[in-house]
Every structure is written in C-alpha cells, then in structure tokens.
From TrEMBL:
It comes from Noviherbaspirillum suwonense. Keywords: Ribonucleoprotein, Ribosomal protein, RNA-binding, rRNA-binding. One of its GO terms (cellular component) is ribosome. Binds directly to 16S ribosomal RNA. Belongs to the bacterial ribosomal protein bS20 family. This is Small ribosomal subunit protein bS20.
Amino acid sequence: MANTAQARKRARQAVKQNAHNSSQRSTLRTAVKAVRKAIEAGDKLAAAQVFQSSISIIDRIADKKIIHKNKAARHKSRLSAALKALA
C-alpha cells in the first residue's frame, strides 16, 4: 500500500487512467471486429466505409500510445489486405 500522499494520489490516478485506456482498447477491438464482419458479409462498399472509420480510430489510439504504432500499422495492413481480397 502507498505510504505517502503523493504515492496514494498516483495510485488513484493509475486506476482512473487504466479504466480510460481499457475503454479505448475496447473501442479499437470493436472497430476491428466491425470491419471483419463487414468483409465477411461480402459487401465491399459498406466494408470500405467501415474500414475508413476504423483506420481513424486505430490511428487515434496509436497516437495516444495506448497501443504501439507498429501494432496499429499491422492492424491497418491486415484489414486492408482482407478488403482487397474481397474484390
């Protein structure tokens, strides 16, 4: 347990930040799943629109350093390849 006032405050902040980051990661996973679902449905136009919105989400979360930039690039690359394979 934290002994100093500073350490207690940092522990409180860490809990709050962890909850926020977990929420952001959940948003990322939901966006990726939405693209995968659209691709499986076979509708290329709808999948492309969902893909564009998910790219924005992925980049935003990577910019905040919630996920690594290479992980973001890997997600975008694989989703893009799956979308191209749909054609």
